[in-house]
Amino acid sequence: xxxxxxxxxxxPTCSDQPARTIRHSILSTRxxxxxxxxxxxxxxxxxxxxGTAYHRLRHPPKLFDQVVSLAVEGSSRAxxxxxxxxxxxxxxxxxxxxxxxAQAFNDAKLREVSAVELQSDELKVRTEGRQAPLWxxxxxxxxxxxxxxxxxxxxxxxxxxxxxxxxxxxxRVEAGRTLVTxxxxxxxxxxxxxxxxxxxxxxxVEKRYRKGRVVRAERRLVxxxxxxxxxxxxxxxxxxxxxxxxxxRLNLTIRRSLACLxxxxxxxxxxxxxxxxxxxLLRCYYNFIRPHSSLKFGRKKRTPAQQAGLVAGPLSWRRxxxxxxxxxxxxxxxxxxxxxxxxxxxxxxxxxxxxxxS
Length: 358
Ligand SMILES: [Zn+2]
Hints:
The chain is about 35% helix and about 25% strand. The protein is α+β, with helices and mostly antiparallel strands and about 350 residues long. It folds into two domains: about 50-110 and about 260-315, no CATH class; about 115-250, 2-Layer Sandwich (Nucleotidyltransferase, domain 5), CATH 3.30.420. The protein has a six-stranded mixed β-sheet, with helices on both faces. It has a three-stranded antiparallel β-sheet with strand order 1-2-3, with no helix packed on it. A hairpin with a 4-residue loop joins strand 5 (about 135-140) and strand 6 (about 145-155). Helix 3 (about 75-85) packs across helix 4 (about 90-110). It starts with 11 loop residues before the first helix and ends in an 11-residue tail after the last strand. The protein binds zinc ion. Zinc ion binds next to loops.
């Protein structure tokens, strides 16, 4: 049987120019024994699962996967801890760790998306003990149902700009104009004209509410000409008129999947950081793991990432969390804002259109 190749050194100094690594020893602990490797570049030794979410985990990986699965199915941390017999702080720590991983996975994989039609919306989140509500910006690529970006923060010009820059950055430059549909939020028009320019047709749906119900929806073209809109709608296989129903459907999925976002819930969102974590996990789950009911082809249902051609089939939490995160530069606008442009790539998952394995 051919021996498996030794993994790349996870040290940030070595991962840009990987050095040769060799088998070093086997470390036995009370839980299990694990192979260690030695890097010729920096001389350090490392475990086979260094860089994965399971590194230095003292419980079975299966239990870790269960905690993550429950979190994206609407179970609160306290409920997960009770159901699995863990302490709430362990659950919190594991979810934070899994979220870092999910974020790196989303960042590395959601690239070069073919965008015929984009829909964007903001979701209001009430948080514990603060007056101003938080907002979650989401953008979906309608044809593949791919959840492109999520940004948590106040509804400001800066955040709106960051959100659309991030969405634009994840899309491929195409011959036809992208149809971008949003609500009538005051900054949308300005920002989309600036970020997408003549490569898009921008339409808005303005809803009028009375006693919490929609009484009227006005649809209007904001950027582009009528013939451009007809052309863009002609290319879209899903929309026959201006609408934001696909992103609203995604928002409903988000609300129902996270305990703190459900309506009339007692599980309030404690902090912006924890909301961001949960959204990253959910985005990973929604895009890569859960088959989408509207992407049904014969008997098989596809995941949004599969439909977008980013992966060959549905993935599992084990596959995502055991991918190794290695440090390489990244230029996503949101990532640059978040951590100064330095962050992660995923080893063992080929990213389309780059031809490298980083
Ligand atoms: Zn090294």
